[in-house]
Design goal:
The protein is α+β, with helices and mostly antiparallel strands. Helix content is 59%, strand content 14%. The chain has 3 domains: 8-119, no CATH class; 133-195, Helix Hairpins; 204-366, 2-Layer Sandwich (Heat Shock Protein 90), CATH 3.30.565. The structure holds adenosine-5'-diphosphate and magnesium ion (MG).
Length: 367
């Protein structure tokens, strides 16, 4: 058990008591001895005074050390720590040791502040590194299509693309590369919007069944064009309503589907969307049979800028912000998102959003 610490106030009272009563007590005793022993020799009397002075001196020394140890020393350390913090060094820890109770409190406040400042510093360094990494990734990802556009344009100008078919092929490649760059720039814009936290939601009451049916129709057409097998199931009751921003929710679906397409490595490609009734929640599952996500990457895929190494090494462009935007949108809708995956087999993204319910008075309320 920790010893109970004394407050500075108690210390001052105690110091006063020692400083006032010890001399009074000793002087009282001396007078008493002198009064009762009239035959005391001058030597004994001198010895008595010397002893009193010595005791007073050591008492004063003791009290001074006691206060220095309990008040002055820790305050000196604390002040050194504060100086370090002012200089921007958040590593200087101050220990309370035998300080008095009020100073222990001050020290623990200092420590809380210091640890928080250090955490913030580490976070901002991490953020800075991520930003730098992003800029370098994006420059790289933008450079790749630009280099090939340059190459193909030179091919046309130099007459390498001699036949109309060849020229057509070159132009088509240039077009595809431009589309790739456009996508990347859109992601950057989305990123800077998400960073500034000023996404303005246009929340509406959505009939989820109809909403997902419409989405699935569009996604289905797109998947057909890409030669990807698409399955869709919606087992929600017709009247299920959620409060959501349809455009932002669409962004979520597009991003997840975009990843499924991008990280697909099978010949027989399959993507499915299931919208299920989870009681109080609407449950959405979006599954693919792509390359999957390794257990070590899994905890970080929703982090801003995170891309699995294997995703980085492929030619597939990306900035690693898609899923962080997806997560933010779902959480801003009061929902939750997570992923399950078997490496090599495929990935399933799950998200839930609470249903909206009107009570018997026709008032809006939530489960
Ligand atoms: N369906 C998926 N299949 C395999 N890996 C995925 C899938 N979805 C996401 N990932 C992994 O999660 C990472 C983060 O995804 P995201 O934030 O969308 O970034 P990006 O698509 O720009 O790489 C990806 O780099 C990839 O490694
Ligand atoms: Mg993505």
């Amino acid at each position: 058990m920790k010893p109970k610490r004394m407050k500075i106030k108690t210390r001052i009272y105690l110091t006063f008591a020692v400083v006032a009563f010890v001399p009074a007590f000793l002087i009282g005793i001396t007078f008493k001895l002198l009064g009762t022993d009239e035959n005391m020799s001058a030597d004994t009397a001198r010895g008595l005074f010397a002893a009193v002075i010595l005791i007073l001196f050591f008492t004063a020394l003791l009290v001074t050390f006691w206060n220095k140890h309990g008040i002055l020393d820790p305050i000196t350390k604390l002040s050194k720590g504060l100086n370090q913090v002012r200089e921007g060094n958040f590593e200087y820890a101050v220990e309370a040791e035998d300080a008095s109770a009020d100073i222990v409190e001050l020290i623990s406040d200092y420590e809380n502040m210091r640890v928080r400042l250090r955490e913030n510093e580490l976070k901002s360094i991490e953020q800075e590194n991520k930003n730098r990494e992003l800029v370098s990734n994006i420059s790289h990802d933008l450079k790749t299509p630009i280099t090939s556009i340059k190459g193909y344009v030179e091919g046309i100008l130099d007459g390498v693309a001699s036949t109309p078919e060849k020229q057509q092929k070159y132009l088509k490649t240039i077009y595809d590369k431009a589309v790739e760059m456009d996508k990347l720039i859109n992601e950057l814009t989305a990123f800077s919007n998400a960073c500034s936290d000023n996404v303005v939601y246009n929340f509406l009451k959505l009939k989820v069944k109809d909403y997902f049916n419409d989405c699935a129709e569009e996604v289905g057409l797109d998947m057909d064009n890409r030669g990807i097998g698409f399955e869709y199931k919606n087992s929600l009751p017709d009247d299920t309503v959620i409060i959501a921003d349809p455009e932002q929710l669409r962004k979520v679906i597009n991003n997840i589907i975009g990843n499924s397409v991008k990280y697909m490595d099978k010949d027989e490609k399959k993507i499915s969307i299931r919208v299920l009734d989870g009681g109080d929640d609407v449950v959405v599952e979006m599954e693919d049979n792509g390359k999957g996500i390794s257990a070590s990457d899994m905890p970080r895929i929703f982090d801003r800028f995170y891309r699995a190494d294997s995703a980085r090494t492929t030619a597939r462009g990306g900035s690693g912000i898609g899923l962080s935007i997806v997560k933010k949108i779902i959480e801003d809708h009061g929902g939750r998102i997570w992923a399950t995956s078997v490496e090599g087999k495929g990935t399933c993204m799950h998200f839930i959003i609470r249903k909206h319910k009107e009570d018997i008075y026709g008032q809006d309320s939530y489960y």
